[in-house]
Amino acid sequence: MKLDTVKAIFFWFAVALIGALIVFQVSRRDHFALSKIPVEPKPAPNFTLQNTSLEQYKGQTVLLHFWATWCGPCREEMPLLISLGQRLRDKLVILAVAVDSSESDVKAFFGDFKPAFPVLLDLKHEVASRYGISQFPETMLIGPDGNVQALYIGPQNWDLFEVNAQHTK
Question: Are residues 17 and 97 in the same domain?
Fold first, then answer.
């Protein structure tokens, strides 16, 4: 085979590979939308984990996020949640509740990185049960009045999330 033919095959292979990667990334972006499910406002059950209670954030908008290190979509979504925490740190409190079987799994997941929001451990799944969490990730938006305002089931594109006037009243 001539060298020019090998170069041409390699070139078109590289073009096809790059095209496939672009299509893959675009399809992933569509998969991670922001799908809010409005709910009838109801009081969010209070809880305390590692000396942090939901009640101490009354008067603030809280995103209560249930996740686990063994959950693939949770792992993929976490960088978006971290970015949201940095972007809206003055308008939104994020509480990430890890429903794992050991503290070491959660520590290993983050390594030396410490998110700007509390990562709470629900090792016995008591808080998740109280909230009726059935799959991961699952997130609830809790308004300043302490009522659950919306539910987000599955991984979300938190880059699209904004706190509007209705959430900050």
Answer: no
Same domain, 26 and 83: no
Kindly report the three-state secondary structure assignment for every residue of 30-95: HHCCCCEEEEEEEECCCCEECCEEHHHHCCCCEEEEEECCCCHHHHHHHHHHHHHHHHCCCCCEEE
Domain of residue 84: give its range.
Answer: 34-168
pLDDT tens digits, 71-130: 999 999 999 999 999 999 999 999 999 999 899 999 999 999 999 999 999 999 999 999
pTM above 0.90, yes or no: no
Tokens of 161: 């999330």
Spatial CA neighbour of 35 closest among 163, 160, 169, 143: 160
